[in-house]
Design goal:
The protein has helices at 2-8, 18-22, 80-90, 116-124, 160-171, 208-211, 224-230, 260-274; strands at residues 26-30, 78-79, 95-100, 108-109, 131-132, 143-146, 176-179, 202-203, 234-235, 245-248, 251-254. It has 275 residues and is of the alpha/beta class. A 7-stranded mixed beta sheet has the order 5-3-1-6-7-11-10, with helices on one face. Strand 10 and strand 11 form a beta hairpin. It starts with a helix and ends with a helix.
């Protein structure tokens, strides 16, 4: 009887970590590291006349300046509210890894009373230090998430390292979600023959009617709507600031910051379907 009691009183095996017990997949959250005042990269944007079949866009008339004017700096960083929603919603289903070009810290924009405390608490966490995008192996991750990043037009849209990750995700049909200006980051992913890896896809992003309200519209290095159409994909958009999400195969895109939550929810659904 004592022997039996000894066997019953043996210490239980060590309890695995929460992430191991839940078997959470891994998600790479890519954010811009662009900050206010960074110069624009790439060549100046060339305006193109829309085909006759497309509705006319609002005309932009710029009066000649009496003296040389430097181009306006691009919008910096990452939307605080979109990042908050992406991180909090996806962390319930994923083990998250935040990554930025060069591992630089994130410059949050549009910080207000509703998200300031969360941003402050986030910066105190160890996982708030981004990994270097250049050292990321896309094969280690099950999903890719890009929040609304105004700065994506400056750094991510030209990133060769992100391009390799996106190429891997497309080859393996892994879920990808990009929101608002973060959709511009997808523009970097071109094949060896210069074709876009998302050619033939349907997606959304900031419409020209939303971008034209920005004071630096004339100096934006890329217009997602133009790029998508010129690269053989289908672009759709709703009214400015309206919630609009497009799901095509393994790609989820949201038109603007207001579309963050439904876009991430569709990403979670995609990952559950793949299990």
């Amino acid at each position: 009887m004592r022997g039996c009691m000894r066997r019953r009183l043996r210490a239980p095996p060590p309890v695995p970590a929460m992430s191991e017990r839940l078997g959470k997949p891994t998600c790479l959250l890519v954010a811009s590291a662009a900050a206010a005042g960074e110069p624009l990269r790439g060549q100046p944007r060339v305006a193109r006349c829309p085909p006759a079949s497309l509705p006319a866009r609002p005309a932009v008339r710029v009066a000649p300046a009496p003296f040389p004017v430097s181009p306006a700096p691009p919008l910096p960083g990452v939307s605080a509210q979109s990042f908050l929603q992406c991180f909090t919603l996806s962390s319930s289903a994923f083990n998250l890894q935040v990554a930025t070009p060069g591992g630089k810290s994130i410059d949050f924009v549009d910080v207000n009373e509703s998200n300031m405390r969360w941003i402050q608490d986030f910066r105190m966490k160890s996982y708030a230090n981004p990994a270097k995008l250049e050292s990321i192996d896309g094969a280690r991750y099950h999903a890719l998430l890009i929040p609304n990043c105004p700065g994506a037009m400056t750094d991510l849209a030209n990133s060769g390292y992100l391009a390799k990750i996106l190429q891997h995700f497309c080859t393996e049909n892994k879920p990808i979600c990009a929101v608002g200006h973060g959709v511009a980051a997808l523009c970097c992913a071109t094949n060896e023959d210069k074709t876009w890896v998302f050619q033939g896809y349907s997606l959304t992003g900031p419409s020209v009617y939303e971008l034209i309200r920005q004071p630096n519209f004339a100096s934006l290095p890329i217009i997602v709507e133009d790029f998508v159409k010129d690269s053989g994909a289908t672009f759709s958009a709703s009214k400015p600031d309206a919630v609009h999400v497009v799901l095509d195969r393994h790609l989820v895109t949201g038109q603007n910051e207001n579309s963050t939550l439904p876009a991430v929810q569709n990403l979670l659904i995609l990952c559950n379907v793949r299990k």
